[in-house]
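Issue: copy button drops trailing tokens. Both records pasted manually instead:
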Amino acid sequence: MMNTKETAKKIRQELKEKFPFTKFSVRCERSGSINVSWTDFPTERAVEDVVSKYEQVQRCEVTGEILSGGNLFVFTCQTWTEEMKKKIETEVRNNYGESYLNDRACYYRAFNETAEKMYQEYLETLENQKEASKQTKKTQQEQQQADVKATYTLNEELNGIEITFNTVPSEEVRNELKTNGFRWSKYKKVWYAKQTAERLEFAKMLAGEAKEQTEEVTELAEATQECEHHETLADAYNVHKSLIDLIATNRQFNDTLRMTDLKPYVVILQNAYYDVKENNKYSFVQSIDVYNAVNALQNSELFNILKSEYITGSEHDNTQQAEERKEAQESINIDNNQQENEQEVFSIIPKVQENALNLQFFSNPTSSGDVLNLFDNIDLTQEKTLISDEDREHINKLEESYRATLSVFENHLQQLQELHGQYGDYFDVTEETFSFLRGDVHEIEKRIECLKSDFISKICRYFTKKYNITIDYESIRNKYNTLVTSQEIISEIIEQLDGFSFIEKAQQEIKSQLQKETSYIKTKVKNNKISLNNFFYIDSFEIQFGKYKISYNSYDRAIILFKALYLFDSGAINLSEELKERVKSLRYSENNNVFTTHELNMKKIKSIKLYKNGRVDIEFTSSHYAREFAKDFLNIVKAA
């Protein structure tokens, strides 16, 4: 772990690389904190995004409050020059109206938003300048290389080839010369090599004798590249529209594919579907990605088998036979199809049936061997066994409330956008009363994004709290837009379980936490007792008052240890109420009430004893249990 000075040095270095045009002051304080200050841009939020990861703040796992000792805080302080402040206030006056300068609450919000906008415009201008500079430099280099002329001479006396240029050739040409065996002669100022048929052809090409052929190949490559460049994601989607629509809209089919090795291709096509529907100009999916994903799926025997089980003659089939069936049944089944489509769109989390896949094709004895191999790619019971009816009911209610709230905000946003398009510019100029209209549109857009994040967070917190596991919420939030469904969130959570159930994942995390806390301390196993040296630390502040208490940091270790002991004894991942009270008493008690023998009276564990030197003794009811705990929870294979 880095000390405060090393951390400050790292922060200073990263800020210099990230914002080369700004001078930062990074200072260490005696309190163990770091102060970062600067003038004008970048914005405070941009700097906090960089320095926040260097903070080291420990919190109590039970109460959530900040623990004393060992914390490292990083504070940011931004100041504005009078010139820049006046520029921002002028923009606030033009965009929001004079009233925002007089109302302090509105002023700070408008000032920060305007500063952020000006900073983004500054970055875009800087990026455009860099791009223009690169393009100019590239054009100059291309022009220079176009003017480069090479001539070759056959040295009959030495049986060699000598190549000269009218100016310095590019690095690419020099590398080609070296690859073909040519070396630079400082004395004669030529590139020379022994004469061979291949080198002679290469020299002729450089001299321009193969120029026409090279230009034809270049023009053909440029034409092909231009054709590929102009093909949009929408074009690729339209080519395979029926297949992509099937994968994106058939939830049950989509979920089944996601439990196989075909998941990456399914994700690409689903993202392409949403990007085209939303007319997203900044999609990360390219047309070539769509073609590659479709080809991979169509060439997969597993995909074709699953597709035949889910697809019907009335939905998403490209074949002529399916089209004929669709036309014949259209007049009869139009009402039924309408109901099925509505159910598919508005269903939250469809319940997984016992036989989610139609396995009739397994009855064919000729294909049984192939099908058995395909079973390795599908976990038919994963979601069914992981998500209980109680979980499903709770999450369905969450999604229902999310959809209803999102609909209200989106309707409100649409109304504001229509008003702004109709009257916004007029009122911004002539009437200060309506100058907030533009800001309100931006606020609603932010609220909608926060609503999506909160929806994902609530589902993640539900499983985190219930099953005592950690979930990478940020990766899920950054991956999806407001169209995210609870089914997609659950699929991401299940993927993070790495094949374990929720209970198994919690058990693994409890074991890993204890192994991490004991990896650097001396552990002794003898008979039915395990001793952990220096496991606890004494609160040095309380000692001066004659009180011996464990430190706040050690309190977190106590929680980890008791969780591991209770898991080992009962298999439960959450502490019982009795043990919770016992752990809390360790935090607020002192002297002999802490550093003594605590009887636990469990099936496998008899007692635990704390010493003032930081040692902990755990007494088990038998030596067998002591060795078993040491092996499974402390990663000690050999025990005395």
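Record 2 (pasted manually too):
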Amino acid sequence: MKKAFKTAALYIGTAIGAGFSSGREIALFFGDASPLNVAISSIFMSLLCAIFLIAGKKGLMPKGKIVNLGIFFAASVSLCAMLAGGDYIMQSMTGIPLAFGLAMTILGGVVVVLGIEKIRLLNSVIVPLIV
């Protein structure tokens, strides 16, 4: 149960951190759409998550240099977008200087270098506070 909670917190933390699940993005994306659209999208995203988690657990994900290069490229683009967006938000909303954003980026990098278990541990603490 504890491992399942950490995995769920990791997934939710990733979705929130990537800007996929914050309230503002949901409101902007769906606008005045029917709540049924939100429910269908939530179910679809949950099913997609389950497919990837099951495929990863069973070792069904494709391997190879091209796949790894694609994943690296997608992750790098996402990282750059999140860092730029985070810096803009920090400066425009709080007036916090760039140095603080840089320090947080370095701290995040240290957590990533420590491994997936430390990321799960950190998410299992932070995500319940966010949600």
